[in-house]
């Protein structure tokens, strides 16, 4: 099947997944699609808070950080463009209000659009807001992690 046909099919199929998944799973699917053609994964092997780098053509295309605090879960997935620029950061915080009731929130940070959208299990349509300080902090953290990953694993940076 040609690349153009695959892309068209993918564009037609993705909205179907978003409509038929809970709001959290659609972002996991988006990350899986972004990393589906990787050559390999690198991990820092931290048993409590692992960071995984997804590499394609010896360049990082995404990285993922996962933590499991006492009463919840936290993950941050960073999508990179070919030139190493941060395209999107999806931060998911799933904490328990009490033993049985989780409170799930997802922050989708798109620095190139200067946009943050927040989704919660109480508002799965999301709402947008602007906070350039938060975006700058997230970009700084992601760039620091990106530099650490590149140097620690001897992989190429994107051409900037």
Provide a descriptive summary of the structure in words.
About 30% of the residues lie in helices and about 40% in strands. An 8-stranded antiparallel sheet has the order 1-2-3-4-5-6-7-8, sandwiched between helices. By secondary structure, the chain is α+β, with helices and mostly antiparallel strands. The longest helix has 22 residues, at about 130-155. The chain is globular and about 45 Å long. It starts with a helix and ends in a 7-residue tail after the last helix.
In one word, what is the shape? globular
How confident is the prediction overall: mean pLDDT? 75
Radius of gyration, in Å, reads 16 Å
Strand content: 35-45%
How many β-strand stretches?
8
Number of helices: 3
The biggest beta sheet is recorded as: 8 strands, antiparallel
Q: What is the chain-wise order of helices and strands?
A: HHEEEEEEEEH
Order of strands, main sheet, comes to 1-2-3-4-5-6-7-8
The helix-and-strand class reads alpha+beta
Helical amount among residues, as a percent range? 25-40%
Distance between the termini: 32 Å
- Please mark out the parts with pLDDT under 50 across 5 or more consecutive residues, or reply none: 16-21
Give the gist of this structure.
With 160 residues, this protein is of the alpha+beta class. It is 32% helix and 38% strand. It contains 3 helices and 8 strands; from the N terminus they run ααββββββββα.
């Amino acid at each position: 099947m040609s690349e153009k046909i695959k892309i068209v099919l993918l564009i037609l199929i993705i909205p179907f997944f978003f409509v038929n998944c809970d709001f959290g799973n659609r972002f996991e699917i988006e990350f899986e699609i972004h990393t589906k053609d990787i050559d390999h994964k690198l991990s820092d092997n931290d048993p409590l808070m692992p960071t995984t780098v997804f590499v394609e053509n010896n360049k990082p295309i995404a990285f993922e950080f996962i933590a499991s605090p006492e009463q919840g879960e936290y993950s941050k997935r960073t999508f990179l463009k070919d030139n190493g620029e941060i395209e999107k950061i999806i931060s998911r915080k799933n904490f328990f209000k009490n033993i049985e009731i989780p409170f799930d929130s997802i922050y989708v940070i798109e620095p190139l659009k200067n946009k943050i959208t927040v989704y919660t299990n109480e508002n799965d349509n999301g709402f947008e807001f602007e906070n350039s300080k938060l975006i700058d902090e997230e970009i700084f953290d992601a760039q620091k992690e990106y530099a650490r990953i590149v140097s620690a694993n001897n992989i190429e940076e994107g051409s900037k």
